[in-house]
């Protein structure tokens, strides 16, 4: 038996690097997984793929209802969908830049959480929310400031939900993600004037001196999603190779 046996999970951004690793591990651990993403196709091991813009409230409400009809009430939600957005500093970034990053990273997390928690409350069932934040939601830096701000917001939403719903058996935790070997990192490297040195500089900033593999992140998320973490809520779990320990 896996640690997620009998669970129905939604993974947003489940067609991406971290999200697809979470999906695969969750399936191996016994969960039925619904993936939310905007790509044309989702991972083959998902029980259900829903192409949905998570910044669209009506679309999210329909998508969560679709999961409930097809699989059962979702009792695990992993909010992994995110974009890096512009690297422009505050005085050069536009309001549209801000809206774009916060719509996916913050509003999308909020909306998916809202509709999953509403279902759990109506059914009187416990559940687990795991939000993927970032070291960039803990420390400041001169690059991608809007991303930093959005990931800090995700951390605090996690804590507020943890306090609000703890007595209803709904847990909420955040993963503080370090640099991970995904397509997002490659895209950031290609957009950076540093080129290949961008990734090496990221690696050098982590005491462990390498990037994480997506499955290393997925293992911690699976633990938080499972009943093994039944007394863990409101936590920031740093999976960052020592980055924020410095």
TrEMBL record:
Keyword terms, alphabetized: Oxidoreductase
Signal peptide: none
An annotated Gene Ontology molecular function: oxidoreductase activity
Family classification: Belongs to the short-chain dehydrogenases/reductases (SDR) family.
Protein name: SDR family oxidoreductase
Record organism: Fertoeibacter niger
Higher taxonomy: Bacteria, Pseudomonadati, Pseudomonadota, Alphaproteobacteria, Rhodobacterales
């Amino acid at each position: 038996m896996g640690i997620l046996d009998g669970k129905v999970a939604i993974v947003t951004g489940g067609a991406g690097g971290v999200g697809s690793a979470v999906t695969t591990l969750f399936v191996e651990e016994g969960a039925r997984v619904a993936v939310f993403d905007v790509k044309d196709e989702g991972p083959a091991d998902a029980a259900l793929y829903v192409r949905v813009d998570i910044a669209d409230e009506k679309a999210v409400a329909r998508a969560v209802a679709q999961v409930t009809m097809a699989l059962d009430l979702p009792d695990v939600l992993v909010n992994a969908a995110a974009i890096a957005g512009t690297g422009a500093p505050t005085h050069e970034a536009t309001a549209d830049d801000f809206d774009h990053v916060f719509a996916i990273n913050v509003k999308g997390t909020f909306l998916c959480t809202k509709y999953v928690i509403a279902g759990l409350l109506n059914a009187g069932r416990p559940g687990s929310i795991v939000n993927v934040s970032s070291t960039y939601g803990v420390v400041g830096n001169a690059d991608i400031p809007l991303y930093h701000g959005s990931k800090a917001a995700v951390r605090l939403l996690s804590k507020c939900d943890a306090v609000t719903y703890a007595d209803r058996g709904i847990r909420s935790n955040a993963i503080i993600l370090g640099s991970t070997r995904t397509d997002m990192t490659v895209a950031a490297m290609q957009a950076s004037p540093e080129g290949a040195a961008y990734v090496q500089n990221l690696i050098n900033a982590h005491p462990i001196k390498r990037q994480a593999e997506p499955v290393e992140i997925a293992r911690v998320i699976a633990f938080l999603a499972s009943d093994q973490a039944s007394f863990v809520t409101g936590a920031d779990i740093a999976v960052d190779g020592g980055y924020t320990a410095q």
